[in-house]
Amino acid sequence: MIRIALGVFVVALIIVTAIALQGQPGVASLTWLGWQVNTTAAAGVLLIGLLALLATLFWSTLVWLLQAPARARRAGAEARRRQAGEVLTKGFVAAAAGDGPEARRLAQKAAELAQETPQLVRILAAQAAEAAGDRAAARAAYGAMLGFADMRLAAHRGLMQTALAQGDAPEALRQARAAYELAGDARMGAAPWAWRAVLEARLEAGDWTEALALVAGAVERKIVSPLTAERARAALQAASAASREAAGDSGEALEFVQAAAKARPDFTPGPVIAARLLAADGRAARAVPTLEAAWKARAHPALWLTWRDLRTDETPVARAQRLAALAQLAPETREARILMVEQALIAGDAAAARTAAGALESEPVTQRIASLMARVAAAGGQTDEARAWIARGTTVPRDPEWADIDPTGRAFAYTPTDWARLVAAYAETGELIHPRFERREPTLNDLPQIPAAYADNSAVFDAAQSGGAFPPIVDDGDFGQDLEPADQDDAQPRDFLALGGRGKAR
Question: Of residues 481 and 403, which shows the higher confidence score?
Answer without folding.
Answer: 403
